[in-house]
Design brief:
alpha/beta; 7-stranded parallel β-sheet; two-stranded antiparallel sheet; globular; TIM Barrel
């Protein structure tokens, strides 16, 4: 686990030229503990994150973590995060003990986030049975990418995203494997023996999601993402501290120089596309 502190994060932001950053919990989220421990941990990390934001309101924002899969506790923490901590959004893991986003058991949480018009950033975590399929390699290598793809596909095919149009959803890692699988998911949905999915607008739904460019957007992945999403849905992401500073610098340079985006689209990707999502940060910066 790489070291992290508010001071080191701010120093990196200054070095790279990042004006604002969002704090959030990474994999495995909070569900490595259960019951009251998970609920208490959610309260603690969200309070700590909010304290960091209060100390640096012009630079930092908070994506709060609800203690899923406990629905009642998650609803209470959403209220606390929104009404008391004034969180800028939420981070949801792609699955909670094998329960994927889009599962009906999570519907009360999605309803409440939708009611509040929340920004929800997805973060991949290990799928059930990861040890059996990872072939001894680190789970983030490909399993995280597939788990994001799995949960977004479920959100689409269960019509969770259609029912919750007030949600703003951010998909990580340049869309994960969705650019490669969009045609397959759409084709599957339109097959005659899968009539429950035939009316679902797979391409339209993918086009209205937001996509962070953390990871490896270039040389190949960004072009695939632009085939399913317009450039005004792209968001720069550094993924610090898991991405080392030299890689963050290299990716930022590559995105600045790429010919896949024009200058207006680059300004959007680096800054302007995020402004409607995180208005408090923009206003606090004056």
């Amino acid at each position: 686990m790489p070291n992290w502190s508010v001071d080191s994060a701010l120093a990196l932001m200054d070095d790279v030229g990042i004006a604002h950053a969002l704090l959030s919990i990474s994999s495995p989220g909070l569900s490595f503990v259960a019951g009251e421990q998970c609920t208490g941990l959610a309260w603690t990390v969200n309070e700590d994150g909010a304290a960091a934001v209060r100390s640096h309101p012009h630079r930092l924002g908070l994506l709060a973590s609800p203690p899923l899969p406990n629905i009642d506790a998650a609803l209470e923490e959403i209220e606390h995060a929104c009404d008391d901590l004034h969180a800028d959004g939420f981070v949801l893991m792609t699955n909670y003990d094998g329960v994927y986003l889009g599962d009906r058991r999570l519907e009360p949480v999605m309803d409440e986030l939708d009611r509040r018009g929340a920004v929800v950033a997805l973060h991949p975590t290990s799928p059930p049975g990861a040890e059996a399929v990872a072939m001894g390699r680190a789970y983030p290598l490909i399993e995280f990418i597939f788990d994001t793809t799995r949960t977004v596909t479920n959100l689409i095919l269960t019509e969770t995203l259609e029912r919750h149009r007030n949600l703003t959803v951010i998909v990580p890692h340049v869309g994960s494997a969705l650019p490669s699988l969009a045609d397959r998911v759409n084709g599957f949905a339109k097959l005659s023996d899968h009539k429950p999915f035939a009316h679902i607008d797979v391409y339209g739904t993918l086009a209205r999601l937001y996509y962070d460019l953390a990871g490896t957007p270039l040389p190949h992945n960004l072009s695939g993402l632009l085939a399913i999403a317009p450039a005004d849905r792209l968001l720069y992401g550094s993924d610090t501290p898991f991405t080392p500073p030299n890689a963050i610098h290299a990716t930022a340079r590559a995105l600045t120089q790429t010919e896949l985006l024009d200058d207006t689209q680059k300004r959007g990707m680096f800054s302007e596309n995020a402004q409607p999502l995180f208005g408090r940060l923009v206003q606090s910066a004056g």
